[in-house]
Amino acid sequence: VRTGGFYDFFQQEESLSLDPRSAFTTVSRTPPTIEVTKRPSAVTSDGFVVISGVARTDGRAKDIMVYHGEDKIFYEGGAGEAGLRPFTVERKLSPGAHSFYILVRDENGLTASESVHVWAEDT
User: Fold this and answer.
1) How far is it, in rounded angstroms, from Cα 100 to Cα 17?
2) I need a surface site. Which of 41, 44, 93, 98 has the fewest CB within 10 A?
3) Where are the alpha helices (DSSP H) in the chain?
4) Close Cβ partners of 17 (under 8 Å, ≥ 6 residues apart)
5) 51 phi and psi angles, rounded to 5 deg
6) Could you tell me the pTM of the whole model?
C-alpha cells in the first residue's frame, strides 16, 4: 500500500477529552476486514485476472476501492450498510508485474487494506 502512494488514506485523528473527576468510558473500535475469496495465482498466462472478495464492517462502509497500480478500477461509496459488502474486479493484463490494492474505510474512519500481486506471462 505504501508503494501505491496511499499515505493520506491512513491518516486518522480523534480528539479525546479526559476529565480526572469522572470515570473514563471504554470505547471499542473494530476496523473493517477484507477477505479475498477469488484470487489469481501468482503467475498467470491467461491475459486477465478476476479478484473477488468481501469487506466486513461493524458500522457503515464509507469507501471500498480497488486500485490496479495507481488506477482506481473499482469504487463503492456512500451510505453502505454494516455487515458484508461484496466486490469483484476483472482486469486485462499486459506482460509483467501487476499490483492490486483493496482499501476499505468505515464511517468512523477506520481502514483495512489488502494487496494482490500477479506476474503476467506473455501469452
Assistant:
1) 39
2) 41
3) none
4) none
5) -125, 125
6) 0.78
